[in-house]
Amino acid sequence: MREEIHAAPFITNPGALVRIRRNDRLDILKQCLDFLSNRSDIRICTVAVNKTTKPAGYDVFDNAWQALIQRFDNTLRNRNYPGAFADQRGLVLPDNTDGGKLTTLLRKMRHYNPVPNNPTHQTTGAGYRNLAMQSVIEDPFLKDSAHSFIHQLVDVVAYAARQLYEPNTYMRSKQGHNFYARLRPVLNTYANRSHPLHLVQL
After folding, report:
1. pTM of this prediction?
2. How many CA within 13 A on the CB side of residue 147?
3. Entry's InterPro entries (predicted)?
4. 179 with 27: CB under 8 angstroms?
5. % of residues, the chain, pLDDT over 70
6. Using CB atoms within 10 A of its CB, is residue 160 exposed (0-12), middle (13-18) or buried (19+)?
7. Where are the chain's structural domains?
8. What angle do CA 65, 49, 79 make, to 5 degrees?
9. pLDDT tens digit sequence for 57-73
10. Could you point out which of 17, 54, 97, 191 has its C-alpha 20 to 30 Å from the C-alpha of 121?
């Protein structure tokens, strides 16, 4: 319980945790995912960025976070998270990385948040609408993942998502590239209805 889970090194470069058999370390990751999938009070949204298709100068950090925050705000705005709340509000609690840049982005989105029109649901045609963020409150609260079980669980989810696209040899041999599907009961279906696992792909 005192060890921090960083999913990637946990499997491939465990350091002192090599004392735990690799098969058991894999089982710990699997049990983390199953713990989440059995909850009734969460919904998971994952953004995947294909860097190989992006032009020079593409800001992965800004674009990925903007897509995630848009889905988060939209889900709150439409009261689509579990629970009988008449009004839903949310906080962003990232790990302690580039907090200043994320704060700047979030503040900008409160005033200017261009969202492409969806021709299936909009009559305004191509282009963008400015859907200023409404339901995410305060600036991001940065947290050290070493002291947060929630952040360590998020890391396991992100690792499982990456294995869908870039599975390492060991994870593929253990069917670990399919682990993200274990989260199906708690995935945010509103994030991307066209993807079978509702991932937002940029």
Report:
1. 0.90
2. 5
3. DUF3800
4. no
5. 95
6. buried
7. 7-201
8. 45
9. 999 999 999 999 999 99
10. 54
